[in-house]
Design brief:
- The protein is α+β, with helices and mostly antiparallel strands.
- It is built from three helices and six strands.
- The chain has a five-stranded mixed beta barrel.
């Protein structure tokens, strides 16, 4: 066998391996999708998901920042404005139903405070009608 044939064979095997691993990872992430119903709460240096007002802060799950989370933030109800000049520092909340993937193998969020993280894959629906238990705190 020529050296070029060996190199091509190795290259093909590596490319096939990458393709197979990519498909397996995509299948695993899609098969682990869960439906979440509750609230996303933006606070100072935090974005968390809770199922209800009683869950704060004990059962809060860190929300991974992505474009979907940024868009939800724009529509969220302002609970308290920390800095009237910018919306970036506002405490906000939104009622939401979404498909997401949970990670539990580590520490997440600000200073590793959270035992789990959810990545939002698809928003099913959202509402600005927020449980009064949040607003009255």
């Amino acid at each position: 066998m020529k050296l070029t044939n060996v190199i091509y064979t190795i290259l093909i095997v590596v490319i096939l391996g990458i393709v197979i691993v990519t498909f397996i990872n995509k299948w695993r992430s899609e098969s682990s999708l869960e439906t979440f119903n509750g609230y996303i709460v933006w606070g100072m240096e935090s974005v968390v998901f809770v199922r209800n007002a009683d869950a704060l802060p004990d059962d809060a799950i860190w929300v991974e920042q992505n474009d979907t989370v940024v868009e939800l933030h724009k529509n969220a109800v302002v609970l308290k404005s920390n800095n009237p000049a910018t919306e970036a520092d506002d405490d906000r909340i939104i009622k939401v139903s979404f498909l997401g993937v949970t990670q539990r193998d580590g520490k997440f969020g600000h200073l590793g405070k959270y035992d789990a993280q959810v990545t939002i894959k698809d928003v099913i629906k959202y509402s600005t009608e927020v449980d009064s238990a949040f607003i009255n705190e």
